[in-house]
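Preliminary data (for renewal application), zinc ion complex.
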Amino acid sequence: MDHQPSSDLPVKIGLEIHVQLRTKSKLFCSCSADYRSASANSNICPICTGQPGSKPKFVNKSAVENAIKMALALNSNVNLNNAISMQRKHYFYPDLPSGYQRTSKPIATGGSLKDVTFTEMHIEEDPGQFELRDGTVDYNRSGVPLVEIVTEPEFKDPKHAREFLEELLAILDYLSAASIQPGSLRVDANISVAGNNRVEVKNINSFKGVFTALTFESARQKNLVKNNLPVARETRHFDESRGTTSSLRRKEDAQDYRYFSDPDVSYLILSESQIQEIKKTLPELPSEKRNRFCKVYGLIEEEAFAITLEKYMADCYEQVAKSVDSKIAGNFFRGILKKQLNYRGLSMVESELTSSILIKIIKMMTSAQITEKVAEQLLIAVLDLKADPQEYAEKNNLLGIQEQSTLNEIIDKAISENPQAVKDYLSGKQESINFISGIVMKLTRGKADPKHLQLTLKEKFDLIKKSG
Ligand SMILES: [Zn+2]
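Predicted structure:
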């Protein structure tokens, strides 16, 4: 899609990221914030459906604390002078029963992540869910606490935004202050190309979707600019299944929302000492853990980065690294483990893998009972069949690195059955050694030690060469 070099026309991207805060109840009432399991319109009350005469309760304190925790973890400045005050943001849409959304004044400003400055962060309530296809509304979500994180338009390209979100997601995972399940994160993006009009893209409902939406939209605008066509100032809708954006409406201004202070909600004043108390609850954050893993466990930066993106994985790694060679474990986590999880689209916590299972597999490998190839086979058996690695290895005859005498026979067989590969090698194609090696691995079901096999094959080929 992105066939034009991204440097030819400068792109500016800013993001508004909505994250659901992890709380028991909604922002202004006692309805559960866990709305997903409830049947439609059963998790509601007069407050969160904006019924006449209903008054909001005092703002949910744990929502505020979680939001402050996020701001502190992102090195944003919590505004102590401003008490937390709620405003009404007016607009009409069927998912908003009161005709306005309660949204706080900024609770924090400034700070940065991956060279992108945070403009501000504020708390607001989630609207209900409007189903465009049949016109039904489910208000179960109405009033669930959100934090909106607004950035300056400082992203250089979609990849930059993806890296930023990856790190943000890791920080949120570590804080346990926000819900990071699918549907909990929603992103609006504003994009402009070469100083032309800014376009807002709405309805990006996954972090993965952000990259697709930004790639499509920046290519679309670049095309217009290159063809001397105007870029309209508008709001566009992202269609995740198609990976495209389409025009929704003219862009609204802040004054279109007629913001004013909500007379029904009292101010919440946080003292400096309360903020300091919240600060004390901050856990070790991904970047800090990364540095420590490199120092303590001898990991290279890429390994530490891959392992610390998910807190559960980082915790498991640390358990494993205490029982086996920490560098071999690091290599296993970044390589085989990540590969197999990515292939299945699973996070480590979703995979239900435990550190004790991984210790078993890695110990079999370090005690030379199995090769790395077999270790991968065992991991697959654990993931897909919930097998016990030791039992599975015994049952399938995977234990024991192949004896040299049997290995020699198998190598001879592979060589004699593939004369072309030998000819290729003799004529200078070094990589045909990998072809034979692959065949041997298949025949031994991965039990041959790969390094040893490479050496043996090289010797054999050189012998053939000498004998002409
Ligand atoms: Zn309610």
